[in-house]
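Progress note, project year one: complex with pyridoxal-5'-phosphate.
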Amino acid sequence: MVDRTPSSKDVAGKEVSAATLAVWAGEGESLVQGATQVPIVYSAAYGYPDVESWLDVALGRKPGHIYSRNTNPTVHAFEEKVRILEGAQAATSFSTGMAAVSNTLFALLAPGDRVVSVKDTYGGTNQLFLSFLPRFKIQAELCETTDHEQIEAAIAQGCKIVYLESPTNPTLKVMDIERLAAAAHEVGAIVVTDNTFATPINQNPLALGSDLVIHSATKFLGGHADVLGGLLCGDPKLVAQVFHYREITGATLDPMAAYLLIRSMKTLALRIRAQNESALRIARWLTEQPAVAAVYYPGLETHVHHDVAARQMRGYGGVLSFMLEGGFDAVKRVLPRLRLAHRAANLGAVETIAGPPATTSHVECTAEEREAMGIPEGLIRYSVGIEDADDLIADLTQAFEGT
Ligand SMILES: Cc1ncc(COP(=O)(O)O)c(C=O)c1O
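Model obtained:
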């Protein structure tokens, strides 16, 4: 019987693999009365028989829960599962991925601080950098995503946070996390990496030098496009600081959402392996199609940072993007013809999902802003599901016909 306690080396001295951890890790503490699955605990508060035992938990002298805005047994089990998979010392969760991003930035930054990041982070994150943080006199310098020298030079001028996302959304650029973390630590900056696209199955940023890792759990961790969530894990002092901020802002993950996430994560490794394999096959196939002007996927040898991806990732992920000959008009013709894809603003699900940045990741930006970020209007982001890759290729073939 595998012990479900938070350890990654606990079966007869053998290191347990991520696939096994995804199934078992983090659940032990939350199981009750012999149940083999984590219960959905819908209790706003937790009662104590006397003031002493209540104080023990309230003051952190003993483990337990006080109020579900702060902690909850079901939510805790989800946090533990991701924490262990990322090899982190601490984790906390949020109602959405953007709550994780915004609570982290607002909790760790103060007026006068400077952030170094890149131009094509997820659109919502980009909006925080461009519109919301400056209101509090926090400046973000957004560098060219693939220009590591420029990013290093910006970091060397001093900053509080270096914010990375790799691979990026939607153009699948890859950032050398180890190299940029080293530059950040030279100036005492905190490195935050959004690992949503890679998932802990394909990449562990903490092992590459990042101090914190963020996930939109809505995507691959949830995997079924039916739940929203976010997660932060890493350095315990920093996580505690953000956790306290989240306790106050109240962007708490709901227990039902946490339960769905735990259930989904049991198949995370299976799903990601299938999606890695199919995405690579489809990306290679797309490079040979006359209707396609360019393909963006870190697994392709022609990708500008394939060598970095090969070094820091165990698989290249389930999302790819491709640019159609004929620009946005071609996108409008091809998308409705796809039979095996939802046209929706999401990714990371068991069903294939396709959409242009104009209605998905960068809906908040104008066409000019997208162009300035290097996001062409003729782009389709294609999140590969767990369907048979041959069927997806057949679907794309019929959709391209006559374009
Ligand atoms: C890379 C990345 N980070 C963060 C987010 C935000 O997550 P959520 O939609 O759960 O708020 C997204 C959403 O698409 C994303 O793609």
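The pocket of pyridoxal-5'-phosphate is lined by residues 96-98, 101, 122, 124, 165, 169, 194, 196-197, 216, 218, 228, 230, 361 (CB under 6 Å).
The two ends are 56 Å apart (CA to CA).
No further modelling is planned for this target in the current period.
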